[in-house]
Automatic annotation (TrEMBL):
Record domain HTH merR-type: where: 19-89
Domain of life: Bacteria
Pfam families: MerR_1
Molecular function as annotated in GO: DNA binding
Protein name per UniProt: HTH merR-type domain-containing protein
Organism phylogeny: Bacteria, Bacillati, Bacillota, Bacilli, Lactobacillales
Length: 151
């Protein structure tokens, strides 16, 4: 079996990898840089480099999505505070999925038959077992394998 490391996926989709500046964020969302700075001051959006005073603001894709969604809600009559709260609530499932995927993902293996087995790490109730996921047709199927057999 060929192996893929945890780093493979993390490098592609790491939280902070894809960033843009405030000018690009303004162009993408239609919200002025001044308004975006106000949103930041209120704590509704947070630049990736907020701990680096004097540096140009850069924003992660999460903040891009949040700012765009807030802008859309403001256009439909929401207040800024209500729009931010609504977006935070709507983003919770996506944040949960992100953590499930990235906290559990250990890599992948390609089985002898070409099947991709996604390694989700130790199976919590039975830590001597490793949990794998694979696609069978369009359905996700889980499989437990003894860790000693994998070594």
């Amino acid at each position: 079996m060929a192996n893929g490391t945890r780093r493979d996926l993390r490098e592609l989709f790491h939280k902070g990898q894809l960033t843009i500046g405030i000018s690009e964020l303004s162009r993408m969302t239609g919200v002025s840089p001044r308004q975006l700075r106000y949103w930041q001051k209120k704590g509704y959006i947070i630049p990736k480099n907020e701990d680096e005073p004097g540096q140009a603001r850069i924003y992660t894709m999460k903040m891009v999505i949040k700012a765009a969604a807030m802008s859309n809600l403001l256009q439909t009559g929401y207040t800024l505070k209500a729009a931010a709260a609504q977006v935070d609530e709507r983003m919770r499932p996506a944040q949960t999925m992100y953590h499930v995927i990235f906290d559990r993902y250990q890599g992948y293996q390609v089985a002898d038959d070409g099947q991709i087995l996604v390694d989700l790490g130790p199976f919590d109730p039975q830590p001597e077992q490793e949990l794998f996921a694979k696609l069978v047709g369009d359905k996700v199927v889980f499989d437990l394998k003894n860790r000693r057999e994998l070594e």
